[in-house]
């Protein structure tokens, strides 16, 4: 069967773009004999191969499942539109890259949800797999469809399509899920509801089908009510307390073809408590939990040896904040340099220190350095709690030019709560600052070569953040503001880039939506929406028509200011924050009051640590004995 | 020390682009812990030079590359270690010390031998077309370039052409900086010469070997002696 399918797929490949996306056969791919495992999981990434292969969480979960002797995990990706058309024409189902097995033959299909604009691809994957789109239509003969990742914290727009959503860190909960599945199947695989009941009792597992929603006459949500006995009214997230205690993949699948982040990745910490009020990731993954520097170094070494990558990235939401960042980066850099391996940090804070750190590792050609002040004026940065002063920004720019960078990229968000035209002018002003400082530091002649990029995205209010009560600016207003900034940017050395506002508008709909939005997603998909996160595919008018036909009022979800008392679609999906704290923090935002980072300062009582009995964990060097971490030889 | 390597890219690995292949080989050699020599500068990369780029979708057992090493490695050991660390479909077939100080392989290689698998072709028509092709003084096909399509006479670029089995051809054609003939163009040329080939499709292109061909005498030299 698999052989025949493989041959049929092989015949399509000369006709499609980037065929290496579909061939598998990568180094470190885990191919197990299906007759020797009990449980088969198809890890199905609802985006292109090159995006999915760059996702660290997927590599982690692939490893977690495959390290079990009784289970196998294989990968599938959303086929690009040309491949989808070819597969449909030839009647070829969605298949896994490891063994060319149809995804429908797996026990579990797991979707990572990183970005709302992949939702239509999720439907493509289910449909190509031949699995009913609606959970209610699946029987014991069908795979269990689960989803996890950041978007799971408001997966309501996908509720009718998912059997289970998993909230929080996956490394431990996945084993409970697999064990529960096995126990159910060994018990005769009787009732699918029985399986779902078992899963609903696991911390972190949400079964949308076990909740009934009622609405108020004004369209807002009245109530979420569990319909099964024993199902929690509020679903808690799964939380890994000690990163050192869980296995990290140092033998990840190494792609043969170009992917987005084509490098080895070692996670140095999880969570971030800087409290930038627009940042979804910062609230759903609290508190900070660091991995010890000794372990990071050991993992990095093994990773480099097992992959052959020429770049190693230390990743987290803000790696420059890692307690032992300088010596860890310095040591790794020195050690790996002679093997021709560069160490990099992806995200940087905006101050001279982070530039110094970036510079320390940047033995690479001095290309561009990225700074993300997010807000133009100091005032708006207080509103969003991006605790960066104008002075920090100037210092960072100065440090960048001094250490040899000739290109600076500046990231901003437009449409932030309370934003005025003065804040927009302040965005443009930062571009001119960069040029002024370049002239001071480098002289007129050299400063001519400097390139400044101002990149502006449109604010999307996110669930579980203090800005969840805020509306998005209207599309027309977002476009006006984009043009307004442009007026102030006349120097040829400044490049101005802005994201399509209509993409952000649909992103807001899918971020803030409830179950009723599912119909719009289905309709959009039926009308041909695919790869909505890709500019060449996104079609705003199609989404407008789909929403209209589905009776979904986009403005209701996106443009409405929401009261502190309103019941949200995600209120029963808990990352552990208290509503009172979110309200307080929203009030502080409006009053332009900043909060401190609880990893260094006092606990601000956001609620997470108490809810989940976890503590911020910083691990300076020496936290773990070196001998406990003696490098095992795992080559070959 | 420099080793000259003959490499195969077969099976599904044929869908790797030339860049993908370079990336894959580099990573494999790094994993194998071979003493690769790196370029100087801020962004060091191993000194590996390829004789010729291979199109995506074309398989091969005749890719040649020179690898610079910082210390001597026995070719047999190189072969064994590299193959332990290369992914499916990419194989080192032979390794030998690179001869002398001549021009780069890339500059010297000017001919490539292919095996072409053609489907949907009437065998008699295929044989007739090959005979006609060899007898022709000129075979003009449309060549796609960056600026559009233009007619080219491909006859002088085809040195040898023979039917080797049902739906199977062997061709020796020009490659390299002086001119590069695509196997599809050979089929396009044949299709013009025989009506029975109208629906024929090139389903598999396999590069067998690369050569230096003496333009005067037509004598072929394998990369090992260049
Ligand atoms: S509960 Fe306190 S320490 Fe824990 S994440 Fe919230 S503010 Fe930080």
UniProtKB/TrEMBL annotation, chain A:
Coiled coil: none annotated. CDD domains: Radical_SAM. Gene3D superfamilies: tm_1862 like domain. Residues 254-495 form the Radical SAM core domain. It comes from the Bacteria. Pfam families: Radical_SAM, Radical_SAM_N2. InterPro entries: CHP03960_rSAM, Elp3/MiaA/NifB-like_rSAM, Radical_SAM_N2, rSAM, rSAM_horseshoe, rSAM_sf. This is Radical SAM family uncharacterized protein.
TrEMBL record, chain B:
Residues 3-183 form the DUF2344 domain. It comes from the Bacteria. This is Radical SAM-linked protein. Pfam families: DUF2344. NCBIfam families: sam_1_link_chp. InterPro entries: DUF2344 (IPR018768). The lineage of its organism: Bacteria, Bacillati, Bacillota, Clostridia, Eubacteriales.
